[in-house]
Amino acid sequence: MITVKNAAIYLKDKIGENANDIKKVWQAFKDFCKEPVEGEEEKEILFQCGVFNFTGEKLFHLDFVRQFTVYDEDEYSHIEQLHCEFLFEPTNELKKLKATEWSMDYDDKDGFFNHIENIKEFKIPLNLKPKKTEIYQEEV
């Protein structure tokens, strides 16, 4: 059983050696988002991209996020986010791209995934080689 605590390890194992292949990571991420996670009450998915200075260096971030809202019995406890993040040098083409899309704004997860796969903010970086790939989980 997948739990919030072991979600990042589970996804990393599912991705395996394909961590730099955005298409394969995306497919593994989509499959993972359809799996139940013990201790998760609300499931939201976020797609975001843009040029940011989060690392101390301006880079283009392409980020797939599964957000877990965690409750301790009936009391809200916290939110955790599991990121599949690809970092790129900010070319002129990438500098023009910026998006924040939440699955809650769509009728269902498949509609969300379909939309993401058809926007330029997803399509353009899809065939580029990332400078760095990070798969991590954090409490927000």
Notes on the structure:
By secondary structure, this protein is α+β, with helices and mostly antiparallel strands. Helices cover 29% and strands 38% of the residues. The chain contains 5 helices and 5 strands; from the N terminus they run H-H-E-E-E-H-E-H-H-E. The chain has helices at residues 7-15, 22-33, 92-95, 109-117, 120-126, and strands at 40-52, 59-72, 75-88, 99-102, 132-139. It has a 5-stranded antiparallel β-sheet. The mean pLDDT is 93.
List keywords for this structure.
five-stranded antiparallel sheet, 38% strand, alpha+beta, single chain, 140 residues
Topology diagram in text:
Elements: H1 7-15, H2 22-33, E1 40-52, E2 59-72, E3 75-88, H3 92-95, E4 99-102, H4 109-117, H5 120-126, E5 132-139
Antiparallel strand pairs: 1-2, 1-4, 2-3, 3-5
How would you briefly describe this protein structure?
The chain has five helices and five strands; from the N terminus they run H-H-E-E-E-H-E-H-H-E.
Query: Radius of gyration in whole Å, from Cα?
Result: 15 Å
Strand runs, count: 5
Strand content: 35-45%
Q: Write out the strand line-up for the largest beta sheet, numbering strands in chain order.
A: 4-1-2-3-5
